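Two proteins follow. First one:
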Amino acid sequence: MTGPAIVPAGPYGAPAVTPIPPQLLRRRRSPLTWVTMIVLGLGALVIGILIFLTGGPVATLITTLLAAISFPLLILILFWLDRYEPEPARYRLAAIGWGGVVAVVLSLVAEQLLFSLPGTNTFVETAIIAPIVEEAGKGLFLVVVVIFRRAQIHGLLDGLIYGALVGVGFAFVEDIVYYLSSLQSGALGVTFFLRGIMGPFAHPLFTSAFGIGVGIAVTTRRPALRVLAPILG
């Protein structure tokens, strides 16, 4: 005859806490997570193929390696800032993927449409249309997270981390495109110095500002600030 299970005593005679089976701690990924991973993966594959067909294997390899030089340190810094309450790895990866796939595609399509409007010139295209379109495409990731996964953004730091990671993904793909163009024109060294050395933090900085605005919006009780903070960001 089997007797009752004996629970080992904890400190001061209190019963010890029974450990929770690891299976119960694992959360099943939702259908939205799987769809996001598949869409971003296929999008990255398509963009990679297009870049490969445009520049060829050697040029694609060279420009991809040059683009990859600038961002590992920045990503490590962001992970260090997020070390006390780290965001789930799948959301970090989704942020980078959104910047490198969705934001790039949205920006490319929207810019081509807006650049074709009458009355535009180089200044309007580069100083007005491009920044608004690109920041809208990147910042849309934080809007999607707030709508579908509100609990993932608790404040300023979460918004900053997600925004910066989106900017990293966007800048990585954009740098490859710029490097390919510069390689063909013979100005790769200058372009790498300007984008890879002097300005790799630009897109992460821009989108993190919007992320800070979103972080303020989700923590404030003032209705006006909920609208103004992301816009100002």
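Second one, unrelated to the first:
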Amino acid sequence: MTYRATATDGIAWVTGASSGIGRATARELARRGFTVAASSRSAEALQALGGEAKGEGGRIISHPCDVTDAAEVESTVAAIELAHGPIMLAFLNAGIAPYVRARRFDAEAFRKAMAVNFFGIVNGFAALLPRMAERGRGQIAVMASLAGYRGLPSAAAYGASKAAAIHMCEALKFDCDRMGVALQVVNPGFVETPMTAKNTFPMPFIVSEAEAGRRIADGFAGGGFEITFPRRLAYLVKLGRMLPHRLYFAGVARGTGWSRRKS
């Protein structure tokens, strides 16, 4: 049977926990009885999160960390396990979403997106997998996105980093299965977060942060490699993967309103 971590097995670690989906998921896991180690670059936001969880009867402990720094990720994981016990569930969630347009092409946006959204996950794997392999079990979930399936307007950097994360997890799953490590990807659609608040295009079937946190925690406890929601949007995007380029580009341009933009 595929391993699924429980609150009595050990610690849950959530990166990117200071806001958005990471914050909501950390709170939901704490409500379900997990001791959650929460990481982000903002120690102040993590302290506030810990206070919120305590008021709800949960426990979230603050472990600030910059996921782009491999040595810092390694030392953070070691510190969590030394102080609180083994990390049995990890949600590698930290991410950014820079916009990129061809007319004002920004190469630095790609470097930043890959540093956080992809290599931040790589650094997490490097710290976690040897420990979980030695224990013979563990669970790692990676934040990707439906945007990683195919190219979308202005999401060249963001989508590329998410596509890379999905591909990496698919390739690693074969080895992880043999090691007893359950590997999952989280591919949400639109969620009401500070990250999506800047979007000026339609966001169909958008869900709240709290709903996203519940669905992700349900996915951790349930089965399956992919955790995706809302299902209606996921089905539409999956259908789009099968369309020929001519139909895909035309459909997305119309559906997003891109064909009506002047620049």
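SUMMARY FIELD: The chain has one domain: 11-260. The two ends are 52 Å apart (CA to CA).
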